[in-house]
């Protein structure tokens, strides 16, 4: 596919001919050249450099083969994050692989909301206690810990594989998030103390949703949740009442058409100030409520 090409600009042009978006083409080339995948300025400044000046001659064939394989994987629908092993999320450089979901920019809406929780819901002196349920790569928990280093942030996942990825990210980023194994709020390793804030991006796709086929490379257990996609959200909404401090908040990410259903669930369970937040596309992406019992 890439035989006889010489300069990086030629490689970028060839990648455009196979309909690979320009930003993804740049990231693939940087990854295979051993450069940081977001080093766009370096790539542009070296666009006219010949590959022979960037790699030893005996590595050219291996580079072309690796690039061909990476393109085939991407065109088959595999997330770019799995191919390059990295994903930017809320300013963090996360290690990502097929053991966890590929973090979406939409999820940053949940982080934004958590950071804007009213001061009257949080203690003035004691550490704010925050729990992330179904943490996956650790993206949400690590972003909150990075932005609020004074908070005590913990994260739970039912997958040991996912926790291994989250642990790698926490260690790389030197962020002291406490990680525990468990199914939602049933996590024996967590301190049995109530939380000021519980956040979650749980599975919320219907089991028969046609979009699941396009997500076949990602872990199914982190995507689908029953006939209406709300089974796990129901569990979290019910369980969180016993684990939130009075005045504490529960914030949930959900599907593009589930906001009204999630608001109804929270209201039925006794949460107050129930509301939703929109993502950058104007879609109601997150819903939450305050526990006042």
Strand order across the biggest sheet? 5-4-3-6-7-9-8
Helix content: 25-40%
In what range is the share of β-strand residues? Answer: 15-25%
**Average of pLDDT:** 92
Question: Would you give an account of this structure?
Answer:
The protein is an alpha/beta fold. Helices cover 34% and strands 18% of the residues. The protein contains 10 helices and 9 strands. The strands form 2 sheets. Strands 5-4-3-6-7-9-8 form a 7-stranded mixed sheet, sandwiched between helices. Helix 9 links the parallel strand 6 and strand 7. Helix 1 crosses helix 2 and helix 6 packs parallel to helix 7. The model has no long low-confidence stretch (mean pLDDT 92).
